[in-house]
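Sanity check

After download, print the first record. It should look like this:
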Amino acid sequence: MHAETAVPDPPRLRIRQHAASAGLIWVRQGLRLFARQPLMLVVLVGLGPLLLSTLQVVVPAVGNLVAAMLAPAVSLGMLAVCRCVRDGEPARIANYLQALEDPVARRHLLQLGVYYALFAGLVALILLLTGTTGGVAPPTPTPASPAGADATAMAIPGSAVLALLAVLVPFAMTVWFAPVLCGWHGMPAPKALFFSFFACWRNRGAIFLNLAALLGLWAIGLMVVGALIDVLNAKSGLAPYLLLAPLVFLVLAVFQASHLVMIDAVIDTGVKTEADDVRG
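Expected structure tokens:
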């Protein structure tokens, strides 16, 4: 009879609490990180959501479920790309597979993917009960809702909007840090979801200000692209989409870079990072 090999416990993590002003500093540091390799980040960070979107289009029924299950791993892959740039290491497509190579992390991320899929089903049920028709995309990382559900391609009545907000905000709080906690720190999905919610609540002011600033950058970018479309008279066909697509991927890359800075600042692993300078 062989003796069982003891599995070491993951390092004990602590949640740092920051002043609201830290949210703006995370944006500034995220922009500085993005500026190190902007083209590389735009291409590699945008690859993950592009893959999930392709799955949804090519095989709508099964693709939506698969995309929801893969969303946590894709979210972690985007952050892994940013982490490589931060650490001065070469960023590669393989960064998306690093966490999945660990069987424990893979199992925890799959558990998290089930949670994402259940949320997508809840959104679909809310839309059905409120009389909204159309398909619902699974929760995939986007600039406006990195850990929430993509916007549905339809007009949503006010009752549905209120119901969606009632479930979207708690969902976003539970998954905000969860992929990192599962994939990089060995936490089981239920514990990671709780830890993430608590971390968001303690830093709600800083996270809100961070998101507001990023949405402000998004709005400025939209105005610039809108003005460019007017100047070029490119209001028909594929031209507006071709001009808008680079902005979407750029904002997504900036968001992920800022999100990595936030993670370093909020989750205390005992290793000092640049984000420690903004502790409030």
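If your output differs, re-run the checksum step. Summary of this record's structure: The two ends are 54 Å apart (CA to CA).
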